[in-house]
């Protein structure tokens, strides 16, 4: 567990007001830092964060690859890619050792933002991988050839702690945990942290928790503020200062198959994900 109470008393006001510098332009690209968005609880904002953090980093000139690692294909759909009509997706990359990720990568309408799509085929991988050699390392192997082409690779995990999520953790440098600001948010996080620690000990020593991101926050309610304070007490400095407010603009943007940063560029929700991108770079968790 991260050091607890490290920032107790820091207070919400400071967290919401601190500014982070605009990232300096990069001379070249790569090698990518790989970040997995993980929380086995469903509907906490993993996909929304993958898409919008990715788009915000891309706006800052970072080359970003999103890996849709959920058979629901929400990250692909959210970027306008009709993955259900694709014959070849992340599933084929996992199951065919000689396949090349560069043949599967799709461009998106956002400059500097590419995606490895997923569809329902991926649900079979969980079962089929079990019998493979180095079954936890399949995604790491898939990503290796393009690691030097991107600055950041974001993996959108499905809501489970199964073999696919373990593959994401095995491939990653860091984990970003989106946490919905509601009363039972912390339930299950201990199990997630335990899983992360096991992967770190047994498979991927470089893995660390980059941070906890409070999502669907409504700071006007006492309830939301109390939940955030409890999360800050439990995780200290691991909690991002940036929080994502609850707004219908996020579901609206996904219906439009666009990141909020292009769907509603000046909306506070777009600005929040840009701030998260700046915070991530300021912390050294992205180039
Ligand atoms: N800050 C927000 N405010 C309001 N709605 C949001 C916010 N973030 C996400 N949503 C909406 O909540 C729903 C769940 O979000 P999202 O799909 O990002 O979660 P998830 O963790 O990826 O879910 P799953 O576990 O099913 O993959 C979506 O309809 C999304 O548009
Ligand atoms: Mg999702």
TrEMBL record:
Ranges where the AAA domain occurs: 33-209
Q: Which InterPro entries match?
A: AAA_dom, DNA_Partitioning_ATPase, P-loop_NTPase
CDD domains, A to Z: ParAB_family
Name the SUPFAM superfamilies on file: P-loop containing nucleoside triphosphate hydrolases
According to the UniProt record, where is the region Disordered? 1-28
Give the Pfam families listed for this entry.
Answer: AAA_31
What is the official name of this protein in its record?
A: Chromosome partitioning protein
Name the species this protein comes from: Georgenia muralis
């Amino acid at each position: 567990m991260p050091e607890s109470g490290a920032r107790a008393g820091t207070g919400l006001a400071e967290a919401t007001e601190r500014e982070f510098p605009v990232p300096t332009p990069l001379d070249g690209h790569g090698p990518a830092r790989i970040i997995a968005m993980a929380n086995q609880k469903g509907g906490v904002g993993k996909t929304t964060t993958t898409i919008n953090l990715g788009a915000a980093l891309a706006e800052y000139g970072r080359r970003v690859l999103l890996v849709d690692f959920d058979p629901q294909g929400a990250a692909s759909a959210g970027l306008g890619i009709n993955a259900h009509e694709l014959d070849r997706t992340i599933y084929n990359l996992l199951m065919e050792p000689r396949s090349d990720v560069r043949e599967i990568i799709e461009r998106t309408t956002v400059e500097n933002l590419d995606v490895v799509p997923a569809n329902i085929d991926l649900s079979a991988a969980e079962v089929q991988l079990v019998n493979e050699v180095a079954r936890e390392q399949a995604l790491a192997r898939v990503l290796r050839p393009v690691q030097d082409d991107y600055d950041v690779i974001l993996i959108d995990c499905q809501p489970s702690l199964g073999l696919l999520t373990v593959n994401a953790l095995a491939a990653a440098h860091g984990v970003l945990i989106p946490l919905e600001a509601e009363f039972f948010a912390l339930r299950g996080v201990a199990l997630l942290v335990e899983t992360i620690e096991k992967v770190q000990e047994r498979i991927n020593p470089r893995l660390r928790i980059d941070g906890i991101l409070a999502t669907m926050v409504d700071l006007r309610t006492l309830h939301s503020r109390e939940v955030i304070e409890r999360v800050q007490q439990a995780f200290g400095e691991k909690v991002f200062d940036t929080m994502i407010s609850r707004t219908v603009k996020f579901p609206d943007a996904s219906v439009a198959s666009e990141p909020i940063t292009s769907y509603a560029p000046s909306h506070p929700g777009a600005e929040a994900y840009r701030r998260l991108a700046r915070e991530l770079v300021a912390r050294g968790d992205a180039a």
